[in-house]
């Protein structure tokens, strides 16, 4: 391997494989070193250096100069070639890892190659990435050759290859789509402060603007919704709520629960809970289908949101006060203080900070431990009572459903019987008319 050939190999690998020249030089040096150690032993003091400008190879074993051609000749040209190829592949892999690490948590566009079980393989230039079923939006069906956009979530070496994992379900996928479709976000005029998402169903995005003249929500929606529509189409029709961000939780929490209307927000800062009061006609809207709206709103603003009506809250306060007073060591004054801090159940007392309870009640640590122990026991008892109540409610619903189905079946049977009777009567009527007509034909006109 002469100097000209070395430079040709390095230049070819740099252009064709997009590998840094230094990596190729290093791979050849490493291959020569591996070859020499097979001859002189693994612990031998051996070094090979390639002049980056001329391509000349210089080697030494201790103080003795080594002829690289002789080293390669001793182990065989084919073996040397295999070692160099292996090192080049490793260099190529390392180069790709560096390239895709720069794309980590960013969106890439590729082409669907094939579907294998619960994994979709996506071609990204020289790399085949994987999109697991768990990272795909529910209901999506990707066919070979389909163009697809996804977020790079993991990059690592796997033997001589590179493993790239993609996702379309992460909240940051929504963030990157907003950045690519809305210039004000890319320019930094509008900021995405928080995102909560249940992929394939609904996302909530909180935004703010550093320019008072720019409506952050309106800019994200676009004229007649043209901007947000592009993002929704990319997310397979996923619903997106864009809300105005505010550092004040008393403003942010109602914003996060849109489109429901909130009457009042009561912050219980000691336990990170926000009690949100709504009208009866807004309760189901605020909670959302299967609790989705309040769940996403809670993640968006970082508070544990408890939605209730004024009447229900008064009942819960009264019940909690009575329950707390039943615990040895808690008087009416302390019970009212606890309820005023937002503690509304035995479960809440289980997690209260001992120092806080000592401060509120002027108690010793032993007294606090005794109260918490009682709360744990009563919480388990209350859990059993609630479970039994739910079981009874399920039985009642099941019995009601059976009764309704039986009533429907009986009603259907009555209707069927009535229909059958009407059909039989009609048939008899038609038969009588036919008989009368037949009799009239048999009458002799001369008689």
Task: Please provide a brief summary of the model.
With 447 residues, the protein is an alpha+beta fold. The chain has helices spanning 3-17, 21-40, 68-75, 77-101, 171-181, 183-186, 216-221, 226-234, 249-256, 283-287, 292-301, 310-325, 332-340, 346-350, 354-361, 365-442; strands spanning 46-50, 57-61, 64-66, 107-116, 119-124, 127-132, 147-158, 161-167, 190-198, 202-209, 239-244, 264-268, 273-277, 304-308. The strands form four sheets. It has a five-stranded antiparallel beta sheet with strand order 6-5-4-7-8. A three-stranded antiparallel beta sheet has the order 1-2-3. It has a three-stranded mixed beta sheet with strand order 9-10-11, sandwiched between helices.
Query: Stretches where pLDDT falls below 50 for ≥5 residues?
Result: none
Q: Note the gap between the termini.
A: 134 Å
CATH topology of the largest domain: N Utilization Substance Protein A, Chain:P, domain 4
CATH superfamily name of the largest domain?
Answer: NusA, N-terminal domain
Instruction: Give the spatial strand order of the biggest sheet.
Output: 6-5-4-7-8
- Helical content (DSSP H or I, runs of 4+): 40-55%
**Radius of gyration from CA coordinates:** 38 Å
- What is the CATH architecture descriptor of the largest domain? 2-Layer Sandwich
Structural class: alpha+beta
Tally of separate domains: 4
Taken as a percent bin, the fraction of beta residues is 15-25%
Number of strands: 14
| Major sheet | 5 strands, antiparallel
């Amino acid at each position: 391997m002469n100097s000209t050939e070395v430079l040709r190999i390095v230049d070819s690998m740099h252009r064709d494989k997009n590998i840094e020249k230094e990596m190729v030089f290093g791979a050849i040096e490493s291959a020569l070193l591996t070859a020499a150690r097979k001859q002189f032993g693994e612990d031998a003091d051996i070094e090979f250096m390639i002049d980056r400008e001329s391509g000349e190879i210089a080697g030494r074993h201790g103080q003795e100069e080594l002829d690289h051609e002789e080293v390669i000749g001793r182990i065989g040209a084919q073996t040397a070639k295999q070692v160099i190829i292996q090192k080049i592949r490793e260099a190529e892999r390392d180069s790709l890892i560096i390239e895709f690490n720069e794309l980590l948590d960013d969106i890439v566009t590729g082409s669907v190659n094939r579907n294998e079980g619960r994994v979709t393989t996506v071609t990204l230039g020289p790399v085949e990435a994987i999109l697991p079923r768990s990272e795909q939006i529910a209901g999506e069906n990707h066919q070979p050759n389909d163009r697809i956009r996804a977020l790079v979530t993991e990059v690592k070496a796997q033997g001589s290859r590179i493993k790239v994992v993609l996702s379309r379900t992460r909240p940051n996928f929504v963030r990157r789509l907003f950045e690519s479709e809305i210039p004000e976000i890319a320019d930094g005029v509008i900021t995405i402060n928080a995102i909560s998402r249940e992929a394939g169903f609904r996302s909530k995005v909180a935004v703010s603007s550093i320019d008072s003249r720019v409506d952050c929500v309106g800019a994200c929606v676009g004229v007649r919704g043209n901007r947000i529509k592009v993002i929704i189409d990319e997310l397979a029709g996923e619903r997106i709520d864009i809300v105005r961000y505010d550092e004040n939780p008393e403003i942010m929490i109602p914003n996060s629960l849109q489109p429901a209307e909130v009457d009042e927000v009561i912050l219980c800062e000691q336990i990170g809970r926000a009690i949100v009061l709504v009208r009866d006609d807004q309760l189901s809207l605020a909670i959302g289908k299967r609790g989705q709206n309040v769940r996403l709103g809670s993640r968006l603003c970082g508070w544990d949101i408890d939605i209730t009506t004024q009447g229900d809250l008064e009942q819960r306060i009264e019940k909690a006060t009575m329950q707390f007073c039943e615990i040895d060591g808690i008087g009416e004054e302390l019970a009212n203080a606890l309820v005023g801090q937002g503690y509304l159940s035995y479960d809440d007392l289980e997690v209260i900070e001992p120092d806080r309870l000592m401060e509120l009640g002027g108690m010793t640590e032993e007294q606090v431990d005794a109260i918490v122990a009682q709360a744990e026991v009563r919480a388990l008892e209350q859990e059993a009572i609630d479970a039994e109540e739910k079981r009874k409610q399920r039985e009642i619903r099941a019995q009601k459903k059976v009764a309704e189905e039986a009533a429907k079946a009986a009603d259907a049977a009555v209707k069927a019987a009535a229909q059958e009777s009407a059909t039989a009567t009609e048939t008899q009527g038609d038969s009588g008319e036919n008989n009368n007509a037949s009799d009239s034909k048999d009458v002799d006109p001369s008689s």
